[in-house]
Records
---
Amino acid sequence: MVNLILFGPPGSGKGTQAAKLIERYGLVHISTGDLFRYEMGNNTPLGLEAKSYMEKGQLVPDSVTIGMLRNKVEAHPEANGFIFDGFPRTLPQAEALDALLAEKNTSVSGLIALQVEDEEIVKRILLRGQNSGRPDDNDESIIRKRIAVYKQETSPVFDYYAQNGHSHSIPGVGTIDQIFDRLCQIIDAI
Ligand code: ADP
């Protein structure tokens, strides 16, 4: 099994690249942001809880996120591997992911971070907000809050996987295909 974590700040292009990677490598894509938006769209209790955090640019509590992720992984017993997009976003989430994969006799193969500067991220997300219908993409102060949360709570996850040599990073600027090629080079060497 190949289990990849696609890492990087909000708006760094994880979703775009994940869509291309699943085609090439035949992996199952799990985006916690997409899962929360699906629940919100259906007004489920989980969606309503997630909404209260997402609209402020905060993380949804670990207990909620980890439970949802586990259900999604367990819904795909046939998978050749997974691309985790937007997860893990905290150290407890990383530990929970490792424990879940260990139960299935597998592990994280690698984490790849897309590096993009703050001002470029703000520009990209505001542009995306014109069409995405995401309230968290339309307010610059919320976008900056998400970047701050990324630096404080999420970036330690990179160091966590770096301890056993599993963290990689590439420039997240250039054309979509250039970035995809950089990702494939790393994945093919894992
Ligand atoms: P982006 O990467 O552009 O911020 P996402 O769709 O990945 O967009 O996430 C949107 C929001 O969903 C986050 O700001 C956060 O509130 C919530 N979220 C997504 N994934 C997680 C997670 N793993 N843990 C906690 N909250 C999450």
---
Amino acid sequence: MKLIIAIVQDKDSNRLSGELVKANFRATKLASTGGFLRAGNTTFMIGIDDDQVDAVMTVINKSCKIREQLVTPITPMSGTTDSYLPLPVEVQVGGATVFVMPVERFEHF
Ligand code: 2BA
């Protein structure tokens, strides 16, 4: 058995949960926050058999888009009077960051 942990953008989370249900995969959604952008994202935990990993990857891949997001870098000078204003830079976010982990034991009581 495997546990897939997939971090996706909030904008894609409804579509992904709908597609997972349609394909008969069970999942749990957690509200999460990205360490870099400090913006909300959604983390899916999906428990599956080993031979279903590729099928779940396909669902995730089809449901999540890559998007550009503007970030304003924080400089050590921020807050002082003679500091310059850093220009926002564009970063690419997503479609999904996915970890596939082995499950040692699974119980469902
Ligand atoms: P954030 O940490 O908010 O990162 C958002 C996007 O900012 C990242 O997109 C990446 O393009 C950029 N970024 C992140 N750290 C950076 C850095 N140190 N320097 C420059 N750019 C940086 P994604 O790579 O698609 O990641 C989307 C979200 O997935 C992340 O949100 C984070 O919540 C999660 N994630 C990504 N890699 C991870 C990892 N190795 N472990 C745990 N969570 C991860």
---
Amino acid sequence: MSDARDLQTTTTNTMGRGNWATSIGFILAATGSAIGLGNIWKFPYITGDYGGGAFVLVYLVCVLVVGLPLMLAELIIGRRTQQNPVGAFQKLHREGSPWQLVGWLGVASGFVILSYYSVVAGWALAYIFKAIAGFQGTAEAIQSEFGELVTSPGQSIFYHTIFMAICIGIVIGGIKRGIERWSKILMPALFAILLGLACYGLFSTEGGSKALAFLFKPDFSKLGAEGVLSALGHAFFTLSLGMGAMITYGSYMKRGSNLVRDAITISFLDTVVALVAGIAIFSMVFHFGMEPGQSVGLIFKTLPVLFKDIGPWISVPFFVLLTFAAVTSGISLLEVVVSYFVDRRGWSRIAATLVLGAGIYVLGIFSAVSAWSVPFSGKGFFDFFDDFSTNYMLPIGGLFTCLFIAWVMKDKDRADEFGSRGPLYKGLRFLLRYITPVAVLAVIVHQLGIVEKCFWLFIRLFVFFLNYAG
Ligand code: TRP
């Protein structure tokens, strides 16, 4: 039973788990979680694949209709309960409630996502050293370096090890002295580097205006249903939603700050960084007359070819930026897993971080060795983990989080954290009840191919009915 008094008592029981020292510290840490490889590596290349402006437009709508409400929902659940995702659902419903499975799914997602995320982050790290050494030789030679890195287990595992060690080191430091302190250093550095790169792209290359037109002039011909669904899926990933990362970060907040304002700030900064990264990258791509639709290789294969002419003073900051962004996201993924074992199992932070970090590291080795594939699937571990977590685990987690806050959580718990019961609150509740879950369900159903199957079933039934009626 979770009346306000119970919540209060348990809140005091969880005092020792740490808090953000400042509200700007929280904003930077949460923004750091959101801004990551998703913004700088994934967003530009999927935008390129789906033809630019139209995709950006749909993506912005998805952030507003699905991302922002869900971000607020997670922060509300977290701050209300002051608990990790598993504990949070139990506290708001009841001990042993089946809703805790949503929290469990989140902890599992954190484990899986960080395992392969760390491998990509390791590539970013490796490219800092490549950039310092300078990219040389023909375009083919530069592009093939990426293939060599990915297919060399020794190198991939080496950089994966360093990246995991960095995340573990920061998370051991705790909320204030680890995550908050490092976010306060890394995030401003990231903004500064990005701004520098975008100014370079806009003003020193000839590609600036083409990049702006590409990103902001909608051309719907390449979008399609596939593009719309990718935009929605990406809104999840880039805002760190669907696995309790924002529940966990929200749980370290003290009462008093305005959650609506915080959620808007985080989503806004995340979106701006993705767009600015897009401007910087496409300006260079168009300046050299390359194609925008380069898929996964856009950053690791196309850009280095351009960097050969531009020089290390742009390429080194670029990969440093990418690595910083990955670090502040990696620590949020690890923190979700660690917080569960600290809150619910009574482990010490150091032990939990070391043991779970090591577990994630070992799982990551499967993704780092590109020659290994998942039995019977024909897919490498890397693609398998990426597809499975982004396309299924996050949307399912997000869907149930949304249903929980909209239909199960008590109005009082919800409205108290929201801060009012005015039209804004009613609007949010309406979105979370009827619009957001339907949109998320559409993605899941599409992933499973259910729509097509149901469509044909429907047609058959219809024909059968016509025959029967006739
Ligand atoms: N949002 C990060 C990015 O864009 C990745 C990330 C960090 C994440 N924590 C998450 C994604 C939690 C989903 C859930 O790179």
